[in-house]
Amino acid sequence: MTADIIDGKAFAAGLRARVAELVPAFQAAAGRVPGLAVVLVGEDPASAVYVRSKGKQTRECGMESFEHKLPAETTQEALIALVDQLNADPAVDGILVQLPLPKHIDEQAVLLRINPDKDVDGFHPVNAGRLATGLHGFVPCTPLGCLMLLEDRLGDLTGLDAVVIGRSNIVGKPMAALLTRASATVTIVHSRTRNLPHYLKHADIVVAAVGRAHFVKGEWLKPGATVIDVGINRTDAGLVGDVDFDSAASVAGAITPVPGGVGPMTIACLLRNTLVAAHRNAGVALEKGVI
Ligand SMILES: NC(=O)C1=CN([C@@H]2O[C@H](COP(=O)(O)OP(=O)(O)OC[C@H]3O[C@@H](n4cnc5c(N)ncnc54)[C@H](OP(=O)(O)O)[C@@H]3O)[C@@H](O)[C@H]2O)C=CC1
Ligand SMILES: Nc1nc(=O)c2c([nH]1)NC[C@@H]1CN(c3ccc(C(=O)N[C@@H](CCC(=O)O)C(=O)O)cc3)C=[N+]21
Prior knowledge:
It is built from ten helices and eleven strands. By secondary structure, the protein is an alpha/beta fold. The protein has a six-stranded parallel β-sheet with strand order 1-11-8-7-5-6. β9 (233-235) and β10 (238-240) form a beta hairpin. α1 (8-30) runs parallel beside α10 and α6 (141-154) packs across α10. It is globular and about 55 Å long.
């Protein structure tokens, strides 16, 4: 193995500590702490684990966590009524509806109902549009965390060749938008791409968000590339990423592990977005670039 391991867990702990440091000044100015509401519908065990750790980390940062656990048979109308209630609640700065939702609920309809100024996931089309057009808004947490790790490792990304594998609204597309904003030259590849390894051969940066265990092989990579593995796949051998770690680590310059890479950054960025939302919603200034 030659690649450096990018320690997302440590970076995320540092980011959470910076969030926690900024909470007391907000509290002094606003007379309350930032609040994050997390809504979980159904009993998916993986989702329940994430929601628990989001709640715990929110409280550890000195912010308030409102957890709403609804049964799997909850109607779309009832879920939308809860979103309306959270939109109207001045103690709630951020709203996260855990995905995936049960099949009888139209995910887009629920996400559209969230007030874009409380949309700390950055999934509302208004925030996707703000990102696409260069306006201030909320950037989805997973791609934001990936960008932070990339800039920490590489500094300025200007002119670098980046390939994003995957074009979902929550990871691939916003990741490509962020890299474009950072002046990288970006290619998106997906399941209909012909000869996918061809595009990877020249990439200085590879972000894999495919949802297939061990998908990216070391032999596809440019030597020295920086590889960000977003994948979370549960296999008999445990949690694994979308990158074939052993072969990739012998070619790449740096690589994120799974677990301990992008996952912890996602939650830390959620707390960061909640802190930013609280300042905007309460009209309290936050020094530019401080977080
Ligand atoms: N660490 C974290 O915090 C997070 C991790 N994840 C993980 O990231 C991964 C991706 O998530 P998400 O974007 O939501 O997944 P989606 O299933 O929504 O998107 C997967 C993308 O990969 C593409 N794809 C699928 N198969 C292939 C293939 N054989 N060759 C090339 N491209 C392919 C799809 O192409 P097409 O569009 O053509 O179908 C699609 O664009 C998952 O493992 C998920 O668990 C997700 C969110 C947060
Ligand atoms: N509205 C919404 N927003 C999300 O951001 C969202 C979502 N729905 N649905 C599910 C995906 C997935 N996701 C992860 C968060 C943390 C880890 C994480 O902390 N992972 C740890 C390991 C955790 C474990 O061991 O299971 C790690 O990679 O080290 C992973 C994945 C957020 N998502």
